[in-house]
Fold this protein.
Amino acid sequence: MLALKPSHAWWHPEDVAGTLQDVAHEAGWESAERPGQWVRITRTFRDGSQEDWWAVEIVAGPYGPDKQERAIVATTDPESLPDISTWYLVTNLPAPTERPGSEPPFPPASLEEVIRLYGLRMWVEQSYKHVKHALGWSQYQVRSDTAIRRHWQSFCWYHASHPSASPSEEAREPSEPEAPPQSSIPADAAGTGKKINEGKAIRPQVSWPAALRAVRGWLEPWIMLRRYWSGWSPLPPPPAVQLLLSWLERGHAICLYSSA
């Protein structure tokens, strides 16, 4: 499901409406009692309040309920189509009456369902914006869906098992006064007017790479040891292995690159 611009157009004769906005204006709206092709939709919000919207299925150009993609216009005022409260949507969710007897690739969605699903977009974007910045969900360097989910699970596991690992703890006052930071500007470059990043040699206290290495230090050995032992024997692990697993479960990392 995507949002389009009101001017989204397709090839059409000059005297035929060829944009979503033009087709919506020709949907026969006169009043709430004579809505033409517009359908009243009551939206219910999280606080229990309700608001009447109007939606119309666009049947023009490449769009229609019997085609691969559907275009829908939803608004609070079909007469003026205000920019702030008008949605121009395209979706590949089939209409409930499309091709009776055939199994559609996705569950059919009525106009009410399409509007409800798109109404969740703001909440999803707002929540994901906070999540990806606070938890580093946008810092993965993988492409497959499985690898991305593993990345998310690793970081969520790290925060769940280390509730005290937060920026506030990192920013607590030191027990002794810190020495004034030394300038990283080379002596021969001082006073030359060149732009030099003074903080490039100083890593931030809250660093996603450091957090990732910290969680990998105990999570990967814990997973692999349990996997190896379960593939070797159905019995509980011996005390030495169990002690190591318990050590890792408490979030104590081991060096993954040590040859000792």
Notes: The first helix runs from residue 20 to 25. Residues 206-260 form one domain. Helices lie at 20-25, 111-119, 121-134, 145-161, 167-170, 208-232, 239-249.
